[in-house]
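Input.
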Amino acid sequence: MFKKNMFAIIVILALAGYTFYDLQLKEDKKEAEALKTEQKSKTSEPTDEEVQSNVPSGETGVKEGDLAPELTLNTLDGKEVKLSDYKGKKVVLNLWASWCPPCKAEMPHMQTYYEKNKDEENVEILAVNLTTMERDQSKIKTFVDDYGLTFPIPLDESGDIGVTFEGFSIPTTYMIDTKGVIQKRIVGPMNEEFLSDMVTRLK
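Output.
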């Protein structure tokens, strides 16, 4: 009798354990699928609707849908540039430094795109150098010459623009439409195809 009772208890415990294991397995699978979907949504390119859904909020800031803050800087060749001067143009506002490997990777793509499309797409690239983050400021000109960059290179000599535009991880790029509204913020390097796609979607 004792053996039968023990066998029954073992069977019940085994069934309970299996049920728990099965439920846990299903829960883990559910969480894995959710994580996979979340990661896919983060890495997938935005749709036309997503890019153009950011209507002006009326507020100045660096979130998508905000009016971009004013920017007044001197370029590497000594000219003053203001972001507001480019109202009516699409603007690619890029934050970079000469020592940054991903910046080095994307610059040739940006230059090639610029040469082909600056007039047709009514676009300007403002590649803001985070000058206070440079170990040797003489390397800025060397970098620009080596890559043959022809778009404006504003210098953030005070560090304020890097803070305002949250350039904590570079390159960071803002896609700004003709009304001065930030439509997309991109952290990480871009290739020519991606850049072309993003600018084409701006209005």
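The mean pLDDT is 82.
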